[in-house]
Amino acid sequence: MSVTTTLKLPDALKSRIAPLAQADGKTAHAWMVSALELQATLAERRATFLANALAAEQEALQSSEVYAADDVHRYLRERATGNSPTPPQTIRL
Questions:
Q1: SS3 call for 1
Q2: 3-state secondary structure of 68
Q3: Quick one: the chain helix, strand, coil %, rounded to 5?
Q4: With contact defined as beta carbons under 8 Å apart, do 64 and 90 qualify?
Q5: Pairing status of strand 65-67 against strand 90-92
Q6: Lower CB count within 10 Å: N or C terminus of the chain?
Q7: Nearest-10 crossing angle of helices 11-23, 28-63
Q8: pLDDT one-digit tens code per residue, 2-25
């Protein structure tokens, strides 16, 4: 189900959207709906990413075990070159 919403666009923005929509083979309306959908999706992904990062931080703080960044970077560089390095050891906070 769709709902009608009115957006008051500044003239400068409206004049920018028209050629972009035309180049995309869409009406200005369809182009704006796509743009809003994309921005909503990006905002949701950003919120999920942040929530996951905060949960991971809490997990690390509760377990008190982390990896030294230099060890992880060394390990990843070695793996990227096809080697089988020893995984980094955890360290206690």
A1: coil
A2: coil
A3: 65, 5, 30
A4: no
A5: antiparallel
A6: N
A7: 100
A8: 899 999 999 999 999 999 999 999
DSSP for the chain reads ----------HHHHHHHHHHHHHTTS-HHHHHHHHHHHHHHHHHHHHHHHHHHHHHHHHHHHH-EEE-HHHHHHHHHHHHTT--PPPPPEEE-
**Domain positions in the chain:** 25-92
pLDDT digits (tens, 9 = 90+) for 54-63: 999 999 999 9
Strand extents, DSSP E, 19-89 = 65-67
Q: Which residues of 66-87 are buried (b: 16+ CB within 10 A; e: fewer)?
A: eeeeebeeebeeeeeeeeeeee
